[in-house]
Amino acid sequence: MNAQILSWNVQGIRDPTKQAVISDVLNRWNVNMVILQETKIPVINSTISRNLWNRAGVELAYQPSIGASGGLCIMWRGEEFELLDRHDDVYSLAFLLKSRRTDTIQSAKPRPVKGNPGYVLWKKLQWLKQKLKTWNWETFGSTNAKMGGLLEEIKEINFKEERNCATMEESKKKVDLKLEYKRWARLEEIRLRQKNKDKWVEEGDNNTKYFHKIVNHRRKSNYISC
Are 127 and 113 contacting, i.e. CB atoms less than 8 angstroms apart? Predict the structure, then answer.
């Protein structure tokens, strides 16, 4: 899993305006985990938690501040990580987290393969490649289809807003839909960039003979006879 972890010295989270800024960054950057330092608050209740990261399935743990100094808060997506153990004292907070997605791939083991080490490695890589393809499709599916569905929902809410018949919940939902659309658009951009890179590598390999000819031609041109 390509986890995105944000560490941030926030210098206090009491101010609702600061909480809104943090929430906006977490949603825009689509992080999997955030570590907030110097929270300067003794208790982080459910209201503050929702203000910081209003997303379903978010889990958190915090170390209270000492007066108006210190304080630490760690929040993560429950569907991405599982909390195995924790250790905390007055000045520190340590966590042992396990990726749930990694277990999905590791839960199924390849069949034993016999042969020389090179052949065994090749077969295992083949198996892993297939598992990753399956996981990618089950997790992300068709990017274009998801983006198209999000656009249709956004257009439907826009249509209602133009006729002043959209509810507050639908207007809030439109904001979330736009953020989700941007996330999928970014994933599609990364996929196309990677695909283009693969194509360039393939074309480069196919043109190796051509590059050798150019090098040999330059070598002959630069040759100085004695």
Answer: no
Judge residue 52's burial from the number of C-beta atoms within 10 Å of its C-beta, 0-12 exposed, 13-18 middle, 19 or more buried.
buried
Pick the CATH number of 5-99 from 3.30.300.20, 3.40.1010.10, 3.60.10.10, 3.40.50.720: 3.60.10.10
User: CA 142, CA 131: separation in Å to the nearest integer?
Assistant: 17
Give residue-wise pLDDT tens across range 1-11: 566 888 888 98
Within 13 Å of residue 170, how many CA atoms lie on the same side as its CB? 14
3 state SS of 12: coil
- Output the pTM of the full model: 0.45
Burial 143-167 (b: 16+ CB within 10 A, else e): beebbeebeebbeebeeeeeeeebe
